[in-house]
Design goal:
With about 450 residues, this protein is mainly α. It is built from 24 helices and 3 strands. Helix 2 crosses helix 10, helix 8 (about 115-150) runs antiparallel to helix 9 and helix 15 packs across helix 18 (about 325-350). The longest helix is centred in the first third of the chain and has 35 residues, at about 115-150.
Amino acid sequence: MKEFIQTLKNIWSLKELRDKILFTLGIILVYRFASYISLPAINLAEVGDLLEHYKNQGGNKQGAGLLGLLSSFTGGAFSHASVMALGIMPYISASIIVQLMGMAIPYLQKLQKDGESGRNTLNQITRWLTIGVCLVQAPSYLTSITQLFLPYAQFQSAYYVEPNSIMFWLPSIVILVGGSVFAMWLGEKITDKGIGNGISILIMVGILSRLPEAFVQEMAVQNGKGGMGSIMILIEVLFWMLVVLLAVILSVAVRKIPIQYVSRAQARGGVNKNLMQGARQWIPLKVNAAGVMPIIFAQALMFVPGLLTKFDESNTFLAGFKNVFSWQYNVLFALLIIIFSFFYTAITIPVNQMADDLKRNGGLVPKVRPGKETADYLDDILSKITLPGAIFLSIFAVLPAIVHGSFVQTDAFALFFGGTSLLIMVGVILDTVQQINTYLLNHHYDGLMQSKLSRTTGY
């Protein structure tokens, strides 16, 4: 505990690091404030009643798929008709599109290899594509709040302007696009002048903002059951902490592939003779190299089975796909996550390029020939560790459905026991802590390293 307090003091004593953290907190405050500003045509005072009505009609389950994911990423702005309703998700979508297109378009491949100038051009392409995605998503969102979330026929006072008129659609689309671009700008400012990972931090803040409300709702339900309510809350918190610990392990788990570098002089004298004299390093292959992307891809496709119910609304099996807590939904969801884990890992981990870089720099994997055999070896190892990683990722994704009802009573709190929200929170927090630690090691190593070094070296 003393070391933790000392680390906090070290962080605050560094003016540059302190300014970065305060700047980041200021941007977060602006982002959260903007998420509570409703569209000009929407009566904010009526939104709470409308959402309550929608939940009572069962919308909290049927709309908790991709729409629920978007709402959690925006800290509730999506479901509150905010000017920031689209949030940062259009930028995320544009980034994924550019990344996938980079595998097929030579021009984008060239930009990826052009260093700083190429990255700047790619960022500019992503920004313009973000606006294009917004222009597609904004009308879809307005359709949802006029036909699904905010039923105009029953709640006419929710609108200041006729929702089917051009005076409602045109200004609302412009404002939604501007809100998403503003969120993108805020994220980039955190990356440039804050502690980094600006886009990810905004997503994490949106997710965390819903945790207190979800926990209070769960406490109210459990306490309403009598004397065992407090004990159940304690058990739930302990179990949630265990789930978070397992999520951390999944996020940081790697398989280390030993490699050895041999200098050119040694190589001329014979690699086998001087092998042990080369520098020894590792290639860390992550068990969950795809991160949360398989869950996002799978969740984006899960609306398709729900559409099938329109052809046969009496079919109870198909009707189960409309409920994110049903076994039908979660079995298919888990299978899609496993498939997308292999797919996304295969397209984002360039084993051939890794093997070529090793060969070019005089590195090799012991007992494996450089070149194609090294690439095949890395691909084989990656496939073997991706399978358990994909299985654990799918378990995390369906865990909310497992604990819901029998263990956790409310939908909102159950969603924090796994899925995209939990993994994003864990991943972003780990990255942020690592950046702060790196900054301390580089600028103020006496506070963080001194106690550890003294135990191992005696200095």
